[in-house]
Q: What sequence folds into this?
């Protein structure tokens, strides 16, 4: 491996390569997380869609599948966030990642226990805030990324944040190959984080029928909407999503509620659990009551597509990069390909030859 690919996050996370698999609800389970870790990257379990007992079991299962370090993504606004932090500490999980900025005291608690803290942000001011609070590194997601996302493209946001903070910056949003890793390093990033690219691997547990929809999509087949929970999300365009976007608030609520009710019955989820999810979004994003009800249904709509393979009842978060992905390699094959290509690109730029 070239020296250029040995970046600060390799030592910070205890991994061979500066490649991170992001925490994706109903996607980043033990199998995918462990496969990424075994291939030399940082795999991250997505716990936002797990109960506390499910998270404890997932950590144990992941550890049984890999001896390598891995991370867990937490929701800082979860009612039991403190208890989950205690679990990570007691289980000696290497990395705690956050989609929303954790409070300073939560960061301090994790750092004191030796857990690496890595929030994800979509604006320079947010990066400056978490850096000042003691975060060890930060994931910077440009607007091309999937799920909750901002408006600023990676090529603009990344150099902004690199210049603004003194901690390692990990680039996300639009990355899927070795050229992207090399480009991110040239911008000053310490590595890349990818969601959609890892979702579309043989190690991902997403149903094959859903993977085929992703592979068939073009870069124009995504839509950014706040129809689900009041916060802009990039989703794969489907007839169901188009109807949600087109509907008025009342019709959108009724359609979403009907879908959530169907899959609540199938999965055994409770209405109180869905309500707690919506209220957490309400506190974080100051949503109106009607939007809270929509937010409460979001986990069921995600599960419908990503677990049950029913996109006609659910939604699929995705980055625009889905339109550039054409295959389903294993995580090991993917990471090896990215590393080999990045080495070749950097060698060519430096006037040398591929090692």
A:
């Amino acid at each position: 491996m070239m020296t250029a690919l040995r970046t600060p996050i390799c030592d910070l996370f205890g991994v061979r390569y500066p490649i991170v698999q992001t925490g994706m609800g109903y996607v980043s389970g033990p199998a995918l997380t462990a496969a990424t870790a075994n291939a030399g990257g940082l795999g991250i379990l997505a716990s936002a869609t797990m109960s506390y007992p499910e998270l404890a079991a997932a950590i144990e299962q992941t550890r049984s599948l890999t001896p390598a370090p891995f991370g867990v993504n937490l929701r800082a606004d979860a009612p039991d966030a403190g208890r989950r932090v205690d679990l990570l500490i007691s289980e000696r999980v290497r990395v705690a990642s956050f989609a929303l900025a954790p409070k300073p005291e939560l960061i301090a608690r994790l750092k004191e226990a030796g857990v690496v803290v890595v929030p994800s942000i979509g604006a320079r001011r947010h990066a400056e805030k978490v850096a000042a609070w003691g975060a060890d590194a930060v994931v910077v997601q440009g607007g091309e990324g999937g799920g909750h996302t901002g408006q600023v493209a990676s090529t603009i946001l990344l150099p902004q944040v690199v210049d603004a903070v003194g901690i390692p910056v990990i680039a996300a949003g639009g990355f899927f190959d070795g050229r992207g890793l090399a480009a991110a390093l040239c911008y000053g990033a310490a590595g890349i984080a990818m969601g959609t690219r890892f979702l579309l691997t043989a190690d991902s547990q997403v149903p094959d029928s859903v993977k085929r929809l992703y592979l068939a999509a073009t870069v124009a087949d995504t839509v950014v909407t706040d129809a689900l929970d009041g916060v802009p999300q990039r989703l794969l365009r489907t007839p169901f999503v188009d109807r949600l976007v087109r509907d008025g608030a009342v019709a959108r609520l009724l359609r979403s509620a009907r879908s959530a009710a169907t899959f609540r019955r199938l999965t055994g989820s409770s209405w109180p659990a869905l309500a707690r999810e919506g209220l957490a979004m309400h506190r974080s994003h100051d949503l109106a009551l009607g939007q809270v009800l929509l937010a409460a249904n979001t986990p069921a709509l995600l599960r419908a597509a990503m677990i049950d393979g029913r996109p006609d009842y659910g939604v699929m978060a995705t980055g625009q990069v889905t339109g550039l992905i054409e295959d389903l390699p294993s995580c090991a094959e993917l990471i090896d390909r990215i590393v080999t290509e990045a080495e070749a690109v950097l060698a060519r730029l430096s006037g040398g030859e591929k090692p």
